Amino acid sequence: MERLSYTLNAAAPAKGSRRQAITGVVASGNLEVLAERVLPPDTCTVDIATAAHGFAAVWQAVFSDFAARHQAGGLRLSINDGGARPDTVALRLAQVVRLIEEPEA
Amino acid sequence: MTPSSSRLSWLEASARQRLAVLVDPGSFAEFVGPEQRELSPHLGLFDLPEQFDDGIVVGRAALGGAPVLVAAQEGRFMGGAFGEVHGAKLVGLLRSAARQKHDVLILFDTGGVRLQEANAGELAIGEIIRAIVELRRGGNRVIGLIGGRAGCYGGGGLIAGSCSTLIVSEQGRISISGPEVIETNKGVEEFDSRDRALVWRTMGGKHRYLIGGADLFVDDDPAAFREAVEAALRRPARLDLAILEAEQRRLQRRLQRFGGARDGTDVWSILGVGDPAAIPSLATDEFLRQAADCRETADDAR
User: Fold this and answer.
1) Measured between beta carbons, which residues in chain B are less than 8 angstroms from residue A50?
2) Structural domain of B98
3) Is residue A88 less than 8 Å (CB to CB) from chain B?
4) d(Cα B230, Cα B22) in Å, to the nearest integer?
5) Is residue A48 a contact partner of residue A76, using CB atoms and an 8 Å limit?
6) What is the rounded CA–CA span in Å between residue B191 and residue B189?
7) B213-to-B121, B160, B165, B190, B206 alpha-carbon distances in Å
């Protein structure tokens, strides 16, 4: 496992009030993303455990893009990765932000 | 993001999606959720990826307002296999159900025991079966739902055999040894695991329903599974020596009747199905109509 951590510049806090959300499954070419609203609203962190070694620059690029497109302030993102492609990672990140914005049941 | 149940395939859905559309909306409360990070203590030794819920989602929910405890396996993570934490979560749920006098739903999707933590997984299977028997002896039901991609194999098949009622879709498969395991051990002449039609004729939902290995047969649709669960919750919850003896007699009779059969179609022919070769292509309604006349049932045993 390669473990990577990033702190992103969060332009705006994540919407909604849910405490946490999870999406995806750890399988070949797939990943799970757990989002927890536990950080100050101007901060977003990502911790990754990935089976595919040596792609730190690609992860960095995906997260720069993510931070620019989504409101993720206050979120601690945790990822277990089974070797997903960057487009799948971007999709799961968008899904988890969307899920945590949903009204509480 | 709860998908509307009419557009969701049970086969395609994830464990969390299945639970969300099966129980009363908003009623599910998870135990030992992913935020607690109860990860497998073994997978890291093999440098394999972990999942925050270890491939099983357990918790409390309501069905038609009545409280139930639920467990859903994620078949895409490690084939839904039982590891130490995965198994312990199900054992804990079943023991909790016995204390609270609640019925339990198990949404199976498993290849059996996780090879990387086989000892812990095998122990978990034994503990789960014991917990199911104790729960059923106390007058509660354990209902198994089978229609996931991984089927219900290995120790999962043993656990399924201990349930009060099994609900299966055509896509569901139930067995102990899976197709690849049989082929590896006995040769391709015994079982060609790449012959998908053979797999479904011998382990698939229709076959299991016809021989009484499953009790309710439903479409690959969460609404159909939910309706079947409601019916299963109305069935008597009795488990005693007389019931087990009746089941033993049924299984002995099954071996006498079908012991010489080489294929599912042979079994269906002996059961009295008019056109056994047509069974795999029948739509649910017509299949249920034909099955009603000749299928074996485990009603005495469950």
Assistant:
1) 49
2) 5-294
3) no
4) 11
5) no
6) 6
7) 24, 9, 10, 22, 10
CB contact under 8 A, B34 and A34: yes
Q: How far is A11 from chain B (nearest CA, A)?
A: 25
Q: How far apart are CA B29 and CA B62, in angstroms?
A: 10
The complex's ipTM?
A: 0.95
Q: In what order do the strands lie in the sheet with B165-169?
A: B29-31, B56-63, B66-73, B103-108, B142-146, B165-169, B216-218
Q: Share the mean pLDDT of chain B.
A: 95
Identify the residue whose tokens are 């669960």: B229
Residues 6+ apart with CB under 8 A from B82: B90, B110, B112, B113, B114, B121, B124, B125, B155, B156
3-class DSSP state of A105: coil
Contact of B292 with B282, CB cutoff 8 Å: no
Residue in A20, A80, A99 nearest the CB of B1: A99
In the block, tokens 């690959």 appear at B220
Average of per-residue pLDDT across B94-112: 98
Q: Which CATH number covers residue B157?
A: 3.90.226.10
| Residue B302 lies inside a defined structural domain of this protein | no
With an 8 Å Cβ cutoff, is B44 touching chain A?
yes
d(CA B93, CA B111): 21
Average pLDDT over residues B16-37: 97
Nearest one of B150, B170, B178, B175 to B160, comparing CA atoms: B175
Tokens of B122: 């095998």
Question: Is B76's CB within 8 Å of A30's CB?
Answer: yes
Strands (E), B128-222: 142-146, 165-169, 216-218
- Which of 118-157 (B) contact A at CB < 8 A? none
Ramachandran category for residue B279: left, alpha or beta (phi over 0 → left; psi -120 to 50 → alpha) = alpha
Position B283, amino acid: A
Is 0.90 topped by the overall pTM? yes
pLDDT for the residue numbered B300: 58
CA distance B38 to B54: 7
Q: Which long-range contacts (CB under 8 A, 24 or more apart) does B260-268 make?
A: B263/B198, B263/B201, B263/B202, B264/B201, B264/B202, B264/B204, B264/B207, B265/B201, B267/B207, B267/B210, B267/B211, B268/B207, B268/B210
